[in-house]
Design a protein that fits this description.
The complex is a heterodimer of chains A (431) and B (295).
Chain A: H1 2-21, E1 34-41, H2 48-64, E2 68-75, H3 78-91, E3 97-101, H4 105-110, H5 118-123, H6 133-136, E4 140-141, E5 144-145, E6 148-154, E7 156-160, H7 161-166, H8 178-188, E8 201-203, E9 205-207, H9 209-218, H10 238-252, E10 259-261, H11 262-268, E11 276-281, H12 285-291, E12 300-303, E13 313-322, H13 329-339, H14 342-351, E14 355-356, H15 359-364, H16 372-378, E15 382-383, H17 393-408, H18 414-430
Helix pairs in contact in A: 2-14, 9-10, 17-18
Chain B: H1 2-33, H2 51-57, H3 60-91, H4 98-110, H5 113-123, H6 130-137, H7 141-144, H8 155-166, H9 168-180, H10 184-192, H11 197-208, H12 210-225, H13 229-235, H14 246-255, H15 260-291
Helix pairs in contact in B: 1-15, 3-8, 3-9, 3-12, 3-14, 4-9, 5-13, 9-12, 12-15, 14-15
Classes of the chains: A alpha/beta (431), B mainly alpha (295).
Chain lengths: 431, 295
């Protein structure tokens, strides 16, 4: 009796456990069907336009590729995306296709986790000239290509036309200079009579390195040496220090820009509320501006970043890559082509998140809004982020962020902070 | 007897398995990791023995994080407990409406700490935040200009202030339970002996609450040293590492820099730290409890 009871309990237990372990069988695919696991970030969003886009893409894929099922995993937040993917690689549960962010592309490419797509490209005679060359090169290493680019954006300067009108200032024009920019900032910073605290600022100085790196480049400086192996000699060079001084002086000396941390800016957005007349951001910013009730899109202008020694901006991009141990590389390649192809790219461009890396599709959007031409005309000044080339760039950005904090709120001199940063970055790169 | 214990094991087996697989195994594995230079994607993961621990001794940034955590715990735990005790004493009064207040004070405990952190980020915003607005409304213009979360001096107090509010609910409930356990007769006897309100609190309530206080002290200290979410959401350890507490530091080491070996070593140092502090608390409080013969 006791014995039987025990066996019954055990059996129940075994059943319970095995039920939990069984592989999901929902939507049992038909024979001969291949399932691809696809990962991207930003994911299942509450934004209805994004949700519509995702279901339209899924439906079109199902229609054109009935025998390749897609199991998509949307990872929220691009910061967690990299760590989540890396863990998946270690555990052997990596996806077959993954969205590759230019800012962290080197992590995946340099660790040999991705498949070289060139054999497929030769075989299918894909014309790579259809892509913007500086965007395509993000995932290129010598004669290998690890991702087809999907969409991207150059960082641009947004300005509030109403505030320029009120100050009787002409709108900034492409090719303008740092001096023009600073003069505008001074004119657009307004404090009520008798108060030392402005109620309106010229610029929103976002304390976010992907946003302020361009000032350094525009002055001919950099944070790493050209080979990406060292920081000493770059971040502490005179031209970098001069650029850092220009940027930080907007906050500390001229007081024409409040400095906000990235998390703070998420909630406040002083540009939308008309508290700051200018900000630097990407194409994605238009999504928020369009939805905003605090600013009218007609009042927003976009122009290329002001120049100093060089006219340059940074481009942030996403592409699609096939992972190395993928069991169905051919099918995965088809999906990569689809995601970077005309159907998806046209649909995605309507969302306003970015510009298609496909030149023809991007140019077709030129007339879609009065702001679009400025973006397209600035693509040629776009330079890829260091994260596309240097694996440890996330750490470089952490140190860079701290350096800027030390300058903006810690009262440290630019010279001292930059040298200290170089001392900390070099060992990280040498690891 | 033997048979019965066997079926007992079967019943606890699911949670035992869970504990083994998801708690005990990771704890052990983390120790193994801490002996290696274990960078996630690098195929070479060399054994370094105590190398990570030795490197930690000279790692100024890690000790800065320990220092920040100690600061956070030393201020937030006693203050938080004091406020919770005061609130518990207030809502324990037999007055109308106290249950409403109990609920209100407990609300943060059932809210998502991510959402709470976001709301407090807005409250702390310079110029436009509620705090800045309140200060300027009463004419404290210097205070109104402080950028709480970006100031090296104020960022940590700002986090601590918030933690007192978020941690209030559970502590208050524990204190209320402690208060309910004090026999009414003690107070009556004291009143007969001529003890005033303060004397009753000082010589009856506080000593009788000692076991509760001790429990709250230990659990609050542990969770204070492990604080992560508000730091991650509100300051990212900044400005210039002034709020880089050890929980956040370890997270960065593991998930941003991918040095799992080093992160595991840091976790073990943190574990030792918590162990020592807890043992110390046990010793001190035990002797106090013996004084009051509450053992």
């Amino acid at each position: 009796m006791q014995m039987r009871r025990r066996i019954e309990i055990l059996l129940a237990l075994v059943l319970l456990i095995s039920a939990g372990c069984r592989a999901p069988e929902a939507g049992q695919p038909q024979a001969g069907t291949v399932t691809l696991h696809v990962a991207d970030w930003g994911g299942a969003s509450s934004d209805p336009a994004m949700a519509r886009f995702q279901s339209a893409v899924a439906a079109e894929w199902k229609r054109t590729h009935p025998r390749i099922a897609i199991e998509a995993e949307h990872v929220p937040g691009s910061g967690e995306y990299v760590s989540k993917m890396l863990t998946a690689f270690v555990a052997g549960t990596q996806p077959d296709v993954l969205a590759l962010d230019a800012s962290s592309a080197a992590v995946f490419i340099d660790n040999d986790t991705l498949l070289n797509l060139m054999p497929f490209i030769h075989e299918d005679k894909v014309d790579l000239a259809q892509y913007y060359p500086n965007v395509l090169s993000i995932a290129q290493r010598d004669d290998r290509l690890y991702a087809l680019p999907a969409d991207f954006t150059p960082m641009m300067l947004y300005y509030n036309k109403r505030l320029f009108d009120a100050a009787r200032l002409p709108y900034p024009k492409d090719g303008w200079t740092w001096d023009d920019f600073r003069a505008d900032c001074l004119r657009l910073t307004i404090a009520p009579l008798g108060s030392p605290h402005p109620t309106q600022y010229g610029f929103q100085a976002l304390n976010w390195m992907p946003g302020w790196i361009t000032w350094i480049w525009q002055n001919g400086g950099d944070v790493l040496t050209p080979d990406g192996n060292r920081s000493t000699g770059a971040i502490d060079s005179p031209s970098t220090i001069e650029a850092l001084e220009f940027f930080s002086n907007l906050v500390i000396v001229d007081r024409v820009a409040p400095s906000l941390s990235a998390t703070q800016a998420e909630g406040a957005d002083p540009f939308q509320s008309g508290q700051c007349a200018m900000q630097i951001s990407g194409h994605w910013n238009l999504v928020g501006l369009k939805a905003s009730e605090r600013i009218r899109l007609e009042d927003v202008g976009v122009v290329g970043l002001p120049r100093r020694r060089e006219r340059v901006t940074v481009i942030y991009e996403s592409g699609y890559a096939v992972t190395k141990r993928c069991r169905h590389p051919r099918e995965a390649w088809q999906y990569v082509q689809f995601m970077s192809g005309p159907f998806v790219q046209r649909k995605k461009a309507e969302l306003g998140i970015g510009i298609s890396a496909n030149r023809e599709i991007a140019e077709q959007r030129r007339g879609s809004s009065p702001l679009e031409p400025a973006f397209l005309d600035n693509v040629k000044y776009g330079r890829m982020p260091w994260g596309a080339r240097v694996e440890a760039y996330a750490q470089v950005e952490d140190v860079g962020q701290e350096m800027m904090d030390a300058i903006l709120v810690g009262g440290e001199s630019v010279d001292h902070a930059a040298h200290a940063a170089a001392q900390r970055i070099d060992p990280e790169l040498a690891r | 007897m033997k048979r019965r214990s066997w079926s007992g094991i079967v019943f606890v087996a699911p949670s035992l398995v869970h504990l083994l697989v998801f708690v005990l195994f990771p704890i052990g594995f983390a120790f193994v990791l801490s002996l290696y230079r274990w960078d996630v994607l690098k195929p070479r993961k060399p054994f370094v023995g105590s190398g990570n621990y030795e490197a930690l001794l000279h790692d100024g940034l890690f000790w800065n994080a320990i220092k920040n955590s100690v600061y956070y715990a030393l201020v937030s735990v006693p203050l938080g407990m004091l406020v919770a005790l005061a609130v518990a004493l207030l809502v324990y009064q037999r007055l109308r409406g106290t249950s409403v207040f109990r609920t209100l004070y407990y609300l943060p405990a059932v809210s998502s700490s991510v959402a709470i952190s976001m709301v407090w980020t807005f409250l702390y915003l310079p110029e436009k935040g509620l705090l800045a607005w309140s200060f300027s409304a009463i004419g404290w213009n210097t205070a109104a200009q402080i950028d709480w979360l970006q100031s090296p001096v104020w960022a940590m107090p700002a986090l601590i202030f918030m933690s007192i509010w978020t941690g209030l609910g559970p502590r208050m409930v524990l204190y209320i339970a402690g208060l309910a356990g004090i026999p009414e007769s003690l107070y009556e006897a004291a009143s007969v002996d001529g003890a005033g309100a303060w004397a009753r609190v000082r010589f009856i309530t506080l000593p009788m609450l000692l076991p509760t206080t001790f429990f709250i002290l230990v659990t609050s200290s542990i969770s204070a040293v492990q604080v992560f979410t508000p730091v991650y959401m509100m300051t990212r350890g900044g400005p210039v590492r002034h709020t880089d507490v050890v929980g956040y530091h370890i997270y960065n080491q593991a998930w941003r820099q991918f040095h799992m070996g080093m992160a595991s070593a840091q976790s073990y140092v943190l574990f030792l730290l918590i162990l020592v502090v807890t043992l110390l608390q046990f010793r001190i409080v035990r002797s106090r409890m013996e004084d009051y013969s509450l053992q």
